[in-house]
Amino acid sequence: MSVVPADVLPGGARGVEETAPAPAELGPRARLWPSLAAVYRAQLSRARVARIPLLFVATFQSVGIMILMRGVVDGGGEARAVVAGSSVLVVAFVALNLLAQYFGQLRASGGLDHYATLPVPPAAVVLGAAGAYASFTVPGTVVTAVFGCVLFGLPLTHLWVLAAVIPLAGAALAGLGAALGLLAPRPELATLLGQLGMSAALLLGVLPAERMPEAVRLARDLLPSTYGVEAYARTFAPDPDWAFVLGDLAVCGVVGVLSLAVATWAYRRAAVR
């Protein structure tokens, strides 16, 4: 009986190793913008029915605040602050409050595991959800602004500034709301933090700054929506100072980028736990 080495046989082990197919290449990574568009459309269609009643509540709340303030504010700078603050309050209610609750419940229910399995970047998940929630604020903000201008006798000439105020203030508040929801250890705490943030936007944004103590004014400057309120309020002047308007919008945009970056980091941190 003769022994033949395995490497000389046609079907030997080494022959099999030499003819084994190369491992398949992985597909290309999902790009940010197509993934962002897909998440945005999914979130928009999913939340459309559930968020419309809440948007009505946010609009009704802001309109009611302006009607109450009409009894103590006649006009001038105080009226501008009330109308601008009430308009941005609709954005705060949806983008900050509801988004904090959404991500808090998503984390508690294990919904982040679903997004973690999808081939989408974490930034696309955060930005898509934030953009979808911020989109719901557009009709309510415009209705509130128009009603407030008519109620207080303010001009409607520069209403187009809302096209910049809504996305910039919405990005800043949505990023903050998403971060609060993702960092909160329990969904109840996320809801509480979202409510506190909306209350801060109400008290510090709607009430005229001239009547606030100095310490409260400093806290007001730390609120992301303040700069959107200031930018919109400045446009009610007979001759608006557009340099200050652009400066406020720039600050609001920078805060929005930072808050969304923090929200993306919080999403990565929550998804791996």
Model description:
- With 273 residues, this protein is mostly helical.
- It has helices spanning 13-19, 32-69, 76-108, 111-117, 122-135, 137-152, 162-183, 187-206, 214-221, 225-234, 242-271.
- Helix 2 (32-69) packs parallel to helix 6, helix 3 packs antiparallel against helix 10 and helix 10 (225-234) packs antiparallel against helix 11.
- The model is unreliable at 12-17 and 23-27 (pLDDT under 50).
Overall pLDDT score:
83
- Number of discrete helical segments: 11
Amino- and carboxy-terminal Cα gap: 62 Å
State the helicity in percent bands: over 70%
Reading the helices and strands in chain order gives: HHHHHHHHHHH
SSE layout and pairing:
Elements: H1 13-19, H2 32-69, H3 76-108, H4 111-117, H5 122-135, H6 137-152, H7 162-183, H8 187-206, H9 214-221, H10 225-234, H11 242-271
Helix pairs in contact: 2-3, 2-5, 2-6, 3-5, 3-6, 3-7, 3-8, 3-10, 5-7, 5-11, 7-8, 7-10, 7-11, 10-11
